[in-house]
Amino acid sequence: MELQETLEEGYVEILDHLRKRSLWMLHYCTACGAIELPPTITSRFDAERFGIAPFVTSRQSDILLVTGYINIKTLKRLITVYEQMLPPKYVIGFGSCTINGGIYWDSYAVLKRLDLYLPVDVYIAGCMPSPMAVLEGFRTLMKLIDEGKANGWKKYIENYDYYKANQRKVLKW
Amino acid sequence: MVEKLVLVLTPVFAFFVGIFLEGFKRKMVARIHRRYGPPLHQPLLDIIKLLSKKENISHGVMFDLGPVILVGASILTVLFLPLPGFKQLTPHGDLIAFLYIMVIGSLGMALGAGESGNPNASIGIARALTLMLGYELPLIIAGNTLVLKYGTTDLTKFMTLQSGFHWNLFFLPLTAIAGFIATYGAMGEHPFDIFVAPQEVATGPMVEYGGKHLGLLMIGHAIQVYIETAFFTVLFLGGAANILTFILKQLGVIIVMTLFDTVLPRFKIENAVRYFWRWPTIIALLGLFIVYIGG
Q1: Whether pTM exceeds 0.95
Q2: Most buried residue among B25, B46, B205, B253 by CB atoms closer than 10 A?
Q3: Cβ pair A170, A72 in contact under 8 A
């Protein structure tokens, strides 16, 4: 473990530069924004040319896409899935629902802000974001990874108590 | 000294050729989909990313050993394959030993994935081993047809005897077709990707593997791609005089395989085994009969 740490210290910039070219996104789509993903992946917009490919299990994936509104019920699964993923891992929030609840602003079952419960690296604005916006979000994430600024997973480990307290408040664990 | 160096470097060479073939395949699939596609070195980037993951989740000792067995068995198999112009592990490459060693990797992976306890992994393993039951039969019949024809099991001799366009593909087309279908099944391409099946069993045996484990599995897979294509090249495409021709012939095999892979849907497991035991087996038996009559 220590050898790996020292290696990582020395080569972290090179590693980040290579890591950003290979991002696997999780096939776990929570809400309506997911309908923008098929055109993003397939022939017209072709996300695979940036190395972004859909993958099916949480153990293999790097990006968690939260595609729209988050129910209280969904949040429980979302947290499980996020904690199963291996770091470095990144979260992308889709659309206005993840920012402020969107059209479900006053609902009893829908949460308003995602980043109280999970650390979000990139928000994509819009309802829904178009494939161009989604690709722009991916490019922003790649830029952040390259600059070493996409540290949501570190933030989650460091502020674990804060996130857990927020999650418990909603889920009443 | 030089021979030992070649032996050490052969798996590395096989790994990079496998990476190239995989990258080429992804690019080609993208072009058939009318996409631009990832860069050619994308599989290498994926492996580097997976190996640089911070944590690893283990479900037991066998779970850790599974990928190691896969990579180790793949390296051993590569050392038994003849490489044009270089001396490999055995001076008399034995086809029968090769056919035995080739399946160790899958068995290691089955043992490893079995310990994860994920039902998807168990289903994936069951499907993978059942599929192996299917494609081994035509593969062994096709291989033994060549043994009957040449009177030897030496893979290096197979290459020399086929030189000068005496390819088995032209002289024994039926056996070559059966061998191709069996190799195709061994590669796990559509319609035989039953055990990976992301939509049904979430990548089957790999479902609990992530991070460095998956990186090792992908290294093993790259070497496996090299092995399968090289095996078909040695048996039916006349081997090669130098390494460049060898890689080009492997590329040809991959191109034909990808053409089928891109357009076909997926079999159910019972249909796949029924298919393997019916068509390639009958074709291989016909080829064997022709060789037996023709002497």
Answers
A1: no
A2: B205
A3: yes
Give contacts of A43 with chain B, Cβ < 8 Å. 33-35
Secondary structure, 3-state, A36-103: HHHHHHCCCCCHHHHCEEEECCHHHCCEEEECCCEEHHHHHHHHHHHHHCCCCCEEEEEHHHHHHCHH
| Domain tally, chain B | 1
Alpha helices in B119-268 (DSSP H): 119-150, 155-161, 168-171, 173-187, 198-201, 211-236, 243-263
Distance, in Å, from the CA atom of B257 to the CA atom of B184, rounded to the nearest integer, reads: 7
pLDDT value of residue B22: 92
pLDDT surpasses 70 at A7: no
pLDDT, tens digit (0-9, with 9 covering 90-100), for A30-87: 888 888 888 988 888 888 888 898 888 888 888 998 888 888 888 888 899 998 888 8
Predicted local distance difference test score (pLDDT) of residue B57: 81
**Ranges of residues in chain B whose predicted pLDDT is under 50:** none
Q: The domain containing residue B65 runs over which residues? A: 1-294
**Does residue A13 belong to the interface with chain B, where contact is any CB pair within 8 Å?**
no
User: Chain B closest CA to A15's CA: distance in Å?
Assistant: 8
Residues 42-71 of A with CB under 8 A from B: 42-43, 46, 48-51, 55-57, 59-60, 62
Residues of B in contact with A21 (CB under 8 A): 39, 42, 45
ipTM of the complex: 0.85
Apex CA B142: angle with CA B141 and CA B146, to 5°? 110
Report the top-level CATH class of A17-170.
alpha beta
For A125, phi then psi, to 5°, come to -80, 160
For chain A, which residues make up each domain, given as ranges?
17-170
CA–CA distance, B189 with B51 (Å, rounded to integer): 25
What are A110's strand-pairing partners? A71
Touching check for A88 and chain B: CB below 8 Å? Answer: yes
How is residue A1 written in tokens? 């473990």
Nearest residue, CB atoms, A87 vs list B38, B42, B55: B55
B33 to A19: CB separation less than 8 angstroms, yes or no = no
Predicted local distance difference test score (pLDDT) of residue B58: 82
Are A101 and A69 a contacting pair, CB within 8 Å?
yes
Distance (Å, whole) CA B236 – CA B290:
16
Q: Tens digit of pLDDT for each residue in B5-57?
A: 888 888 899 999 999 999 999 999 999 989 888 999 999 999 988 888 887 78
